[in-house]
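Let us work through a complete example step by step.
Step 1: write down the sequence.
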Amino acid sequence: MKKIIFATIAIAAIAALVYIQSASGVVKPADYEAFMTKEHLEKARKESNTQTRFWEDKLASVPDNFVYQKKLAGLYAADFKLTGDVEKLHRSDSLLHVVNARIPGQVGVLQALTANAITRHAFREAETYITQAYETGEKKFANSLMLTDVKLERGDFFTAHFLLKDVASDSHFDYLIREVKMLDQQGDLEAAIESMEKAAALARSSGSVTTTNWALSNLADMYGHDGRIEKSYRTYLEALSYNPADLHSLKGIAWIAFSHDKNTAEARRILGFLQSIHPVPDYDLLLSEIASFENNDEEARDLRQAFIAKASNPIYGNMYKSYLCELMSDMAERTPEALAIAQAEIEERPHPMSYSLLAWASFRDGEKQQAVDILKKHVIEQTEEPAALFHSGVILKETGNEQEARKYLKAALDASFELGPVLTGEIEGYLAQL
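Step 2: predict the structure and record it as C-alpha cells.
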C-alpha cells in the first residue's frame, strides 16, 4: 500500500511540475497547436509535387530542353528544403551540371549551383561557381552578395567586407541580410538585429509571404541569441502565421520550451511531431540533449549513436560534419575520426569555428598545447560564437590560463539560452573551479 501511495504522490508531483513549467514558461501550446498538424506540410508538398510532375512531363517530351531542366532543378532544390530528402538536392545538381556542360557560363545556372553547394556545405565548390559568375560582369549586385556569402563561410572576412561595401543599399532586402551576417560575424548582435528588423519590414511591405516568413523566422532566432526570449517566441508565431508549414519556427519554439522553460515534455512533443513528418537527423541530436538534461544517459547515448549513424551517410556530404566532429571529440575511441573531420572542415571552410573544432578535437586527444596554439592563432578575438567561447574557456582552464579561461567561460555563460542547459551546467561547473 505504501508503494502505491508513494507512486501516486510521485506522479502527482511530476504532473504539478509540468503544470508549473507550462504556466510560468514562455511557451503556451494553445498559441501554436493549430500548426501541429501534418496537413499544412502535406498541402505544401502537394502543391510542389503538382508543379514538379508538370515540368517532369514537359521534360520527358523534350529531354534536351534546358529551360525545363533549369525549372526542374529549382523545384527539386525547393523540395529538399520542404521534405528533407537530400536525394532531391542531388537531382537538382545533376540537372544544373547538364545545363552548364551544354551552355557554359550562364550566370543563373552558376548561381543555382552555388546555392546548392552552400546548402551541401561544399564551400570550395560554391566559391568556384560564384567566382565564375562574378567574373562575367553580369548581375553584379546578386553575384557580389552570393560571393559575400561564400567568403564569409570561407573565413575571408576582408574580401567579404569589400564586396558588401561596394554594393551597399539599405533599401534592398538581399543586401540587408548579408549585412546582418557581416555584423553578426563581427560580434555586433545589436546592430545585426536592427538590420534584420529593417529587412523584415521590407519583406512585409513587399507582400511576399515566403520572404516575410523567412525574415521573421531568422529574426526570431536572433532575438533568442540576444536573450529576448518572449520576443523570439512571438516572432516565431508571427512567422508561422505567414507559413503554417514552417518547421524551422516550430523547432525554434521547441528549443525555447527546453532551453528557457525547462519544459522537456513539451519540447519532446514538438520534436516528435517534427520527426514524424520531416525525417532528418537533426531531431535525434536535440532529443539526445534533452535526455542528457533529464539524466537519462542510456537514451541520450542511443540518440547520439542514431544521429551519428544517419548523419555519417555519404549522401549528406559535409552537411553534418561539424556536429559529428563535436560528438566524436567527446568519445575517446573516436577522437582520431574527429581530428580528421576537423582537418577536412578547415580545407572546406577555413573559418574560426572550424579551427575551434580542431582545437577541441586536439585537446580531447591529449594535445593540449597544440589546442592552445590553434586557439590563439585562429579563434580567440576572431569569433564571438558561444561554442567557440566555451571551447576556448575549457581549454585555457585546463592549461593553467585561469584568468583568460574565466573571461571566455563567463562570455559563454551569457549565451546560456543558445548553448542550452546541459552545456550551461558544465560551464557553471568549470567556473566554480576557478
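Step 3: interpret the result. The chain has 25 helices and no strands.
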